[in-house]
From TrEMBL:
Its cofactor is pyridoxal 5'-phosphate. Keywords: Aminotransferase, Pyridoxal phosphate, Transferase. PANTHER family: ADENOSYLMETHIONINE-8-AMINO-7-OXONONANOATE AMINOTRANSFERASE. One of its GO terms (molecular function) is adenosylmethionine-8-amino-7-oxononanoate transaminase activity. It holds the Pfam family Aminotran_3. It comes from Pseudotabrizicola algicola. The lineage of its organism: Bacteria, Pseudomonadati, Pseudomonadota, Alphaproteobacteria, Rhodobacterales. This is Aminotransferase class III-fold pyridoxal phosphate-dependent enzyme. Gene3D superfamilies: Aspartate Aminotransferase, domain 1, Type I PLP-dependent aspartate aminotransferase-like (Major domain). GO terms for biological process: biotin biosynthetic process; gamma-aminobutyric acid metabolic process. Belongs to the class-III pyridoxal-phosphate-dependent aminotransferase family. The keyword Mitochondrion does not apply. The keyword Transferase applies.
Amino acid sequence: MKDQTSNSWEQRDMHNVFHGFTDLDTLNRNGPVVLTHGEGIHVFDVHGKSYMDANSGLWNNVAGFNHRGIIEALCDQARRFPGYHAFFGRIADTTVALSEKLIEISPFPSGKVYYTNSGSEANDTVVKMLWMLHRRNGQPQRRKIISRVNAYHGVTVATASMTGKAYNAEFGLPLPGFLHADCPHFWRFGRAGETEIEFSQRLARNLEELIIKEGPDTIAGMFAEPVQGAGGVIPPSEGYFEAIRPILRKYGIPLIADEVITGFGRTGAMWGSDKYNVQPDAIVASKCITAGYFPMGAVLLGPDLCAALTAVSEKAEEFPHGFTAGGNPLGSAVALKALEVLETEGLLENVNRLSGRFMSGLRQLGEHKYAGEARGVGFMGAVELVADKATKVALDGSYQISERIANKALEKGLICRPLGQAIVLGPPFVMTEVEMDRMFAILADTMTEVFAEVGL
Ligand SMILES: *Cc1c(COP(=O)(O)O)cnc(C)c1O
């Protein structure tokens, strides 16, 4: 018989759980962190140790880990109607109510919502929508998808192909036909003497060249995060979206805003598209749509794309695509409540009230000898570490500097995220001033200790 219960939670995890996106060297050395519950912005492990989660889980637990109202909304829905699908024209009333709400708060004058269980599925769904749309409209060759270097759009085969990260080579991805345009990171990629606006215009020219080289009538659409998240928190360079938008219009290429992180207030605006004048044809949402309490993804179709897609689906009799659990009423009840909380309990105001303090905390860390850039917007930010501030040359990989800092911070009871050579912070929207100051104080101490330890 398998003896599985006499061991510690950590051992039981090590024996039975296959972790993804986990540094296995660190896992094998330090073991997993097994959690039991949360209070406010803190989570507790099986030994009772508490951690301030400066990443809101994975960007999504924006209202803290024990919000009474959201939990009640979930329980109420569970008692009334805990599950149904959205196939064959059937749907739960709560999901209809959520759709109305999402379109109301969207940047679109009208539109419709399609439901999935994750951000990856939502992006993947849009790829299929675009492929079907162009095929039915007599352009079956319009299949190529443009995203950008350092983009993160998910992990399905198509969305991993869109994700502009080197690790996808492990899977032999990207698939052919998935193209990566420039990353709009001025600090990293700007040339000597070039202004930020000129940089944005150069990237737009490069994009047009790419489109022409590939053949404009072979491009199905372009996906872009208003602020690149998993790429290391990279707000767009000044004038970037204004520069690329007319080019995409000129060649009839739809622009999809992947707002899985930036949707619902992370940048201080309801949408990153509002903040950066993206003017998308569709928006992909997930993560904080349910404040992290239920899996849900959504595609918000703007009026033009919605009308076009409806027309071709009518010709085909249907849009032949769907996820069994998409539009589940539990998720819809949670999302409705989470959006209400965002608007009526001062979460959005808190992000705007404290984003100045957040940015100045980041900038203070950015004064460290080995900090190259402190960047961010709203409640998302990063400090990028370098060997030399002037040349921006990266620290030797053998220092594993960001992993060390994150591991040391964890010991001190702070969860932050290493991304490449950057430390990323994405605090819950309910974080207080006192908590914010504590977060930066722990991180400053941690950096001092770690740099001393590695002898820098
Ligand atoms: C997290 C993320 C996704 C993928 O969402 P999952 O729910 O993990 O599939 C897609 N796009 C962006 C911008 C994300 O941050």
